[in-house]
Every structure is written in structure tokens, then in C-alpha cells.
Specification:
By secondary structure, the protein is mainly alpha-helical. Helix content is 57%, strand content 9%. A hairpin with a 4-residue loop joins strand 2 and strand 3. It binds zinc ion (2 copies).
Length: 260
């Protein structure tokens, strides 16, 4: 049904192929979300990575008119997959743990700059290649490769249509990856703020942190419940309050709960 509505909305030349369409629908709906505790950003990232790998593998199997061209395309597609795997590994840990800083002279590392604040440092004109690479990988590197493939001769004419659907998917891939980066950046800032608050409480035991929030609803929970399902439950939310203080006697934090 969605596919039908999509076909009615978009002119034939602007449509993406069936597989890409299914993957993109997963990306835009909660359908891709099935694992508990995993953020939608992360799941979208994994989906996009698998779309990209499938795209490259598909190009490797195209029916090129020349054997040499087939070989070159296969090799280049494999190199791009390898390069992509390394970038993804980098994004999973090193990016937020080693590159992101609350304030930095490099725009791609500076959280204050990204969140619209004023950083005390002067920003360099050149940015870290590893981090800025995520904004250009699909739109330049992969696009160049697909453009070169498009110029070749094939024994099957349907490849051109397939290639077009891949071109159309590229901006969506960049979108999924840069959204994940933004998610990591926000998490980095959040954890930094939590560390700061804890330090302040430790330094002065007379200080208290009061957290007031909606409590968990006491309702059934599914096995591997996703975030959208978790937060989308009906029923009234109870408001809970928690007071946190540092205790020198206990040499640790003391938590007091109350319900409002
Ligand atoms: Zn900065
Ligand atoms: Zn970097």
C-alpha cells in the first residue's frame, strides 16, 4: 500500500528501485527497530550500512560487456566496502571518545560550535579528514564510482535503472550516518554535563541534585522492546522525584526517592 501511494506521488523517472524502497521505508518507520536498548539512530546506521554493502555487491555482479571492466568494478566495489568498514569502526568508538571535544579549534570536533554556542577558540579552516569524510564519502567517492560504472556497456539494459536507484539512495545514506554522528555528539555533551554535576556534588556535600521526571509505567513489556514501543505506551505517567547528595561518611552518593 505504501508502495502504491509512493508510485502515485513520484513520477516514474524519480522513483527508486524496489529493494531500495523497502530499505528506505524501514529507515523512515519504526519497523527497523526491534532490539531493546538500541537507539533508532544506531539501528538506522546498521541498516544503511547493509544497504551500502548490498549496493556494492550488486554492482560487482553486473553483466559488463567487457571482462576487464567487470573485474575493475568488482575490485573498486570491494575497496569501497573495506574503506567503509574502517570508517564505521571509527564512528563506533574513536569518534566520540577521542575526536569530539566540548571546545576545539576543529569545527568537526567542537561540540560547542555544533550546538550553536560560542567557542573560545579560533576555528581552523581545515577540518579533520576522518570526521569530515562522512559528509563526502557517499556524495563524492561512491557517486564517482557509480558514475563511471554508468558509462560502461552492459549486456543487460535494466542495470541503468538499478544504478539510478542507487544514485537516489546516496543522499539518504549520508543522512543516516550524519544523524548518527549528531546523536553521538549530543550523548558526548550529555555525559560531560553529568560528570560535571557529579563533581560539583562531591566538592560540596551540602549541595543536592533534584531530579523530577515521569516514572516507568508498570505495564507489560515485550521481549526486545524497541524505544518507540517503550515510550509509546498508553496509561498515566506518575511523576517521581529523586534527591541525590554526596555523603562523606559513606564515601558515595545517597539517593532519596519520593513520589508526587
Ligand atoms: Zn570550537
Ligand atoms: Zn576527527
Amino acid at each position: 500500500m505504501i508502495k502504491e501511494a509512493y508510485n502515485n506521488t513520484f513520477a516514474e523517472g524519480e522513483r527508486v528501485g524496489r529493494n531500495t524502497f523497502v530499505e528506505l521505508t524501514k529507515l523512515l518507520t519504526k519497523k527497523g527497530e526491534s532490539k531493546a536498548g538500541l537507539s533508532t539512530y544506531y539501528i538506522n546506521l546498521r541498516y544503511s550500512a547493509s544497504i551500502f554493502t548490498q549496493m556494492m555487491k550488486r554492482v560487482s555482479c553486473f553483466a559488463f560487456a567487457s571482462f576487464d571492466e567487470q573485474r575493475f568494478a568488482k575490485e573498486e566495489a570491494e575497496t569501497l566496502i573495506e574503506e567503509w568498514k574502517k570508517m564505521q569502526m571509527f564512528l563506533m568508538w574513536e569518534y566520540s571518545n577521542k575526536h569530539l571535544k566540548i571546545e576545539d579549534g576543529d569545527r568537526t570536533h567542537c561540540c560547542t560550535y555544533a550546538l550553536g554556542g560560542t567557542c573560545t577558540r579560533k576555528h581552523k579552516t581545515e577540518s579533520c579528514k576522518k570526521c569530515s569524510g562522512f559528509f563526502t564519502f557517499f556524495q563524492t567517492k561512491v557517486k564517482d564510482f557509480l558514475t563511471r560504472v554508468k558509462e560502461k556497456e552492459f549486456t543487460e539494459s535494466s542495470h541503468i535503472e538499478e544504478l539510478q536507484s542507487m544514485f537516489d539512495a546516496l543522499p539518504k545514506l549520508t543522512y543516516a550516518f550524519t544523524y548518527y554522528m549528531a546523536h553521538r555528539l549530543r550523548a558526548h555533551v550529555q555525559f560531560h554535563a553529568i560528570r560535571n554535576i557529579k563533581q560539583k556534588l562531591r566538592n560540596d556535600p551540602s549541595k543536592a541534585l533534584i531530579v523530577m521526571d515521569h516514572k516507568q509505567k508498570i505495564l507489560q513489556m515485550k521481549f526486545r522492546e524497541g524505544q518507540v514501543e517503550y515510550y509509546g505506551k498508553k496509561g498515566m505517567s506518575m511523576l517521581g522525584t529523586m534527591i541525590i547528595q554526596w555523603s562523606n561518611e559513606k564515601n558515595g552518593f545517597v539517593y532519596r526517592f519520593d513520589e508526587a
